[in-house]
Amino acid sequence: MTELLTAAQMRAIEQAAIASGTVTGLALMERAGAGVVKAILAEWPELAEGRQASTGALPRTPGYFRTENAGRRALVLCGPGNNGGDGFVVARLLRARGWEVRVHLYGDAAKLPPNARANHDRWRGMGDVSRWAAASILGQAETMAPDVIVDAVFGTGLTRPLPPEVAAVMTALPAGRRVAVDAPSGLCMDSGRVLGAAAVCATLTVTFHAPKLGHVLAEGPFRCGVLRLVDIGLGPQDRADRNAHAIVRLEEGTGQLFKDPHAHKFDHGHALILSGGPGRGGAARLSARAALRVGAGLVTLGCPPDAMAENAARLDAIMLRQVGGEGLAQVLADRRINALCLGPGFGLGALQARHVAEALDSGRALVLDADALTLLARDAGLFAMLHADCVLTPHAGEFTRLFPDITARLAKPALGGPAFSKVDAARAAAARAGCVVLFKGPDTVIAAPSGACRINAAVYDRAVPWLATAGSGDVLAGMITGLLARDFGAFEAACTGAWLHVEAARSFGPGLIAEDLPEELPKVFRGLRL
Ligand SMILES: NC(=O)C1=CN([C@@H]2O[C@H](COP(=O)(O)OP(=O)(O)OC[C@H]3O[C@@H](n4cnc5c(N)ncnc54)[C@H](OP(=O)(O)O)[C@@H]3O)[C@@H](O)[C@H]2O)[C@@H](O)CC1
Ligand SMILES: Nc1ncnc2c1ncn2[C@@H]1O[C@H](COP(=O)(O)OP(=O)(O)O)[C@@H](O)[C@H]1O
Ligand SMILES: [K+]
């Protein structure tokens, strides 16, 4: 699991480490700057060579790289806080490698915080610092043709939109290697949202100690480019010291997926998936297949009488039961049915609303997706029946239908940090619904009423654009239902289901369609050594 921090949590960790006497702020800044330089050279190994030398035109003599115009060139843009301090370290270390380095400061050197000021002064022993002037910076970015532009203007301390003179530069930087120190300036690191309208689009972002929420949420991944993490020696943290609602990215399968060799199929639960009418059963069949593949002992599809023939022709290992106007009571008389899924291809009529009410009333663990979410949004009485063993799996449109006021907060322009985030939205929704809410997207957020929260980030090297395909959400609903049948708690089922869903997509790769996802689970499970 990778813990994702808020800016405030990061500051608290830094301050605790400094207060404990194990490290100084200056040492942390030095490690941060050195980490940025190391990450630049790792990302672009060709930069370790001088320009002409890399063409083979000039001999590699000692000191050769120290001649100004023979070396690489960097434009370093520093801001008024400690992010700027990191920038001065980067400038110094690149200069020490023989680079030609130009530095511009937004703000007043006399007002820099102490460590940033110390590094400013050290840099001043090696080179100049130009005052911030958009036209001259952009002109220099053209004429100097830097190998790297370093954005050390704002990091986790950004609290409001970029000042116009900074925005003018940051949105007009030439294409090339744009390296953001900790964060692309303009991005709120608690929400991944751009404060105001302008932010840097980096090609490489180098952050310290732990990723921040803003690196994975919303626009963060698109603004950061490649994300690299540098250990600055802060060590593991005592999570109890911080926000009790730890936010993590689920990266491992859980031991609970393992099947006891002595167990019977009924030990793995029995999932019931309800389907819509004739010609509308594909979605529920996808869910049912996923529930079975994820390891539920038995899966039954319940469908209206007129859809029985169609489903019977399409199902083998999945059992079939008629569920019509007589309601769910007869099917649910079988107490071994311990998890339900309603919504995929379900329909929006009065009968379906009644089935949702019966399912909720049964107290069984329950996934409500797609049409069932629309029914919930239409009927406050149904919504009030939600309980702790329910999982709602809305995409953005369904989330808006269910929680229009929360979406409105999310849609409001972000003008101050920390901006209202998808994590805040999912937490607020879960608290109101009294159940687990899984808010879909490349940055899927899973929240419980307790405030517990996970982000299943399908971004950076875990990106799975092929998941944006019809029916993939139905498969996710089925996977979570299967895990509920296997006795996972609602929150764990949602987290593990979301994680497996992305892993199955990654394993299959390009060309993926929804049908492929359940069929890929065995490979994912083998990879987990189940
Ligand atoms: N934590 C750690 O362990 C480590 C942290 N490190 C580094 O420190 C960085 C965080 O430093 P930081 O807290 O000084 O914040 P930073 O981003 O430099 O900005 C603050 C300054 O900007 C100003 N300001 C803000 N918004 C503004 C706006 N829109 N327009 C104008 N001004 C604005 C704000 O002014 P104020 O709001 O106070 O008026 C203040 O002056 C972090 O990202 C990382 O790079 C590393 O050295 C290693 C260890
Ligand atoms: N670009 C993307 N990257 C990662 N995951 C995605 C992307 N687009 C969609 N998904 C995931 O695919 C699923 C789509 O669900 P949904 O919108 O309900 O589709 P459908 O209704 O067609 O089944 C969700 O789990 C969502 O998180
Ligand atoms: K920055």
From TrEMBL:
* GO BP of this protein: metabolite repair; nicotinamide nucleotide metabolic process
The yes or no answer to whether the keyword Lyase is present is yes
Task: List ligand-binding residues for K(+).
Answer: 83, 151, 185
Give the protein's cofactors.
Answer: K(+); Mg(2+)
State the InterPro entries in the record: Carbohydrate_kinase_pred_CS (IPR017953), CARKD (IPR000631), Nnr (IPR030677), Ribokinase-like (IPR029056), YjeF_N_dom (IPR004443), YjeF_N_dom_sf (IPR036652)
Q: Which reaction is recorded as catalysed by this protein?
A: (6R)-NADHX = (6S)-NADHX; (6R)-NADPHX = (6S)-NADPHX; (6S)-NADPHX + ADP = AMP + phosphate + NADPH + H(+); (6S)-NADHX + ADP = AMP + phosphate + NADH + H(+)
Q: Which GO terms describe its molecular function?
A: ADP-dependent NAD(P)H-hydrate dehydratase activity; ATP binding; metal ion binding; NAD(P)HX epimerase activity
Q: Where does (6S)-NADPHX bind?
A: 82-86, 155-161, 182, 283, 345, 395, 474
Q: Which domain of life is it from?
A: Bacteria
Task: Note how many cofactor molecules are bound and how.
Answer: Binds 1 potassium ion per subunit.
All copies of the YjeF N-terminal domain together span: 10-240
Q: Which residues form the YjeF C-terminal domain?
A: 250-528
Q: What is its EC number?
A: 4.2.1.136, 5.1.99.6
Q: Which UniProt keywords apply?
A: ATP-binding, Isomerase, Lyase, Metal-binding, Multifunctional enzyme, NAD, NADP, Nucleotide-binding, Potassium
The UniProt record gives the binding positions of AMP as: 440-444, 473
Q: How does it assemble?
A: Homotetramer.
The entry assigns this protein to a family as follows: Belongs to the NnrD/CARKD family.
Give the function comment from the record: Bifunctional enzyme that catalyzes the epimerization of the S- and R-forms of NAD(P)HX and the dehydration of the S-form of NAD(P)HX at the expense of ADP, which is converted to AMP. This allows the repair of both epimers of NAD(P)HX, a damaged form of NAD(P)H that is a result of enzymatic or heat-dependent hydration.
This one is known as Bifunctional NAD(P)H-hydrate repair enzyme
Phylogenetic classification of the source organism: Bacteria, Pseudomonadati, Pseudomonadota, Alphaproteobacteria, Rhodobacterales
